[in-house]
Amino acid sequence: MKYKVALRKTEEGFSVSCPGLPGCWSQGETEREALDNIVDAIAEYLAVAAELASDEDAEVREVEVAA
C-alpha cells in the first residue's frame, strides 16, 4: 500500500508526515533517513489502529483505493 507523505527541510534535517494518518510523523538527519523512519511510523500507526479496532469487537479488513 502506498501513502503520500509531506517532506520538509528543517534546521536539524528533514521532517516528514503522512497527511492521511493524523499525527503520524517522523524525522531524520537526511532525506533517506526521514523516509525510512516514516515507513516504520506508518507501520506502527496501522498496527495500533488495528489493535484499537479489535478492542471494540470490530472486524478489521483492508481495502485498496485507486487514486
Primary descriptors:
67 residues; elongated; alpha+beta; 37% helix; three-stranded antiparallel β-sheet
Folded structure, characterized:
- The chain is an alpha+beta fold and 67 residues long.
- The protein has a domain at 1-28.
- The protein contains one helix and three strands, in the order βββα.
- It has one helix at 31-55, and strands at 6-9, 14-17, 25-28.
- It has a three-stranded antiparallel beta sheet, with helices on one face.
- The longest helix is centred in the middle third of the chain and has 25 residues, at 31-55.
- The radius of gyration is 14 Å and the shape is elongated.
- The relative contact order is 0.17.
Write the SSE topology:
Elements: E1 6-9, E2 14-17, E3 25-28, H1 31-55
Antiparallel strand pairs: 1-2, 2-3
Quickly count the helices: 1
Radius of gyration: 14 Å
Strand order in the sheet with the most strands: 1-2-3
List the uncertain runs.
Answer: none
- How far apart the termini lie comes to 12 Å
Shape: elongated
The chain-level mean pLDDT equals: 90
Count of β-strands: 3
Largest sheet: 3 strands, antiparallel
Oligomer: single chain
Which structural class should the secondary elements be placed in? Answer: alpha+beta
Summarize the structure.
This protein is an alpha+beta fold. It has one helix at residues 31-55; strands spanning 6-9, 14-17, 25-28.
